[in-house]
Design goal:
Elements: E1 2-3, E2 14-15, E3 21-22, H1 26-34, H2 39-42, E4 49-53, E5 56-61, H3 92-98, H4 107-111, H5 114-124, H6 128-135, H7 139-145, H8 150-164, H9 174-186, E6 194-195, H10 202-218, E7 227-233, E8 239-244, E9 250-252
Antiparallel strand pairs: 1-2, 3-6, 4-5, 7-8, 8-9
Helix pairs in contact: 5-9, 7-9
């Protein structure tokens, strides 16, 4: 759940779901432009993303577009401490920058992540026949075949998939998992940078201004809290829409 900032001011504003806005959200950026909304007024700066397990903090994703390489004493990587993140081809840039930021997972387990990167490159870089083979494989089988450690999967990858795809690796296609990984983390080095609504909620910061614009400029009626249950094409080519109301009733438009 995402607790909006008003919750702390006793307005009890709570929105269910993940409410992060990642850097590669061009439609949201365009919406702000069309609504004449200053993005700095409604969004926080891009922030670190932290991953927790029942045992505590497991890893922190850095802000690739703005941050410096974390201080660390790891071989080779230590000499990069404090420097700007190097702009390397994906997925090498993400792996290099994130490697020192795992808090609890041992070095050997982290290194087994290379198997997943090899699989992703093989799958998404090949033709449709190769992708179909991965689609028939579960993500669980993929992790075993490419040597990912059980600790890495259970403490980091599996929780990430439960958040992103709402299912464990045993119930997911290997292809779908790698497409998710590509979209959120590998397409560009800074694609995983995320920001949040600064004040209020997504509804009052973005949806309400959009609804107001539609009503003023397009003479539309926006019905808040209504859920469409059925759309029907009538004999005279008109369209009928059945929807539920806030009080639990059903109406037709």
């Amino acid at each position: 759940y995402y607790l909006a900032s008003d919750f702390r001011s006793m307005n009890n504003t709570v929105e269910a779901g993940t409410r992060g806005f990642w850097k590669d959200y061009p439609n949201i950026n365009k919406l702000c432009e069309e609504l004449d909304i200053n993005e700095n007024d409604i969004f926080t700066p891009f922030t670190n993303s932290s991953f927790y397990s029942p045992d505590g903090l497991e890893a922190t994703a850095p802000v690739f577009s703005e941050g410096n390489f974390p201080e660390n004493n790891l071989p080779f990587l230590g000499q990069l401490s404090g420097q700007k993140f190097p702009q390397l081809p994906s997925p090498l840039g993400q792996v290099l920058a994130t490697f020192p930021l795992f808090e609890r997972i041992p070095l050997a387990d982290r290194a087994s992540m290379v198997g997943l990167l090899i699989a992703t490159i093989d799958c998404l870089g090949n033709d449709e026949s190769v992708q179909r083979k991965y689609d028939r494989m579960t993500a669980h089988d993929l992790f075993i075949r490419f040597g990912l450690s059980e600790r890495l999967v259970e403490d980091f990858i599996k929780p990430t998939l439960l958040v992103g795809l709402f299912k464990p690796p045993e119930e997911l296609s290997a292809l779908v998992v790698m497409e998710l990984l590509y979209y959120y983390a590998l397409a560009h080095q800074d694609s995983f940078d995320v920001r949040w609504i600064k004040n209020g909620t997504v509804s009052d910061s973005l949806i309400a201004p959009l609804a107001e614009k539609l009503q003023i400029e397009n003479s539309l009626t926006v019905k808040g809290g209504a859920r469409v249950s059925k759309i029907s094409l009538l004999d005279d080519d008109r369209i009928a829409v059945d929807y539920s109301t806030k009080n639990g009733g059903t109406e037709t438009l």
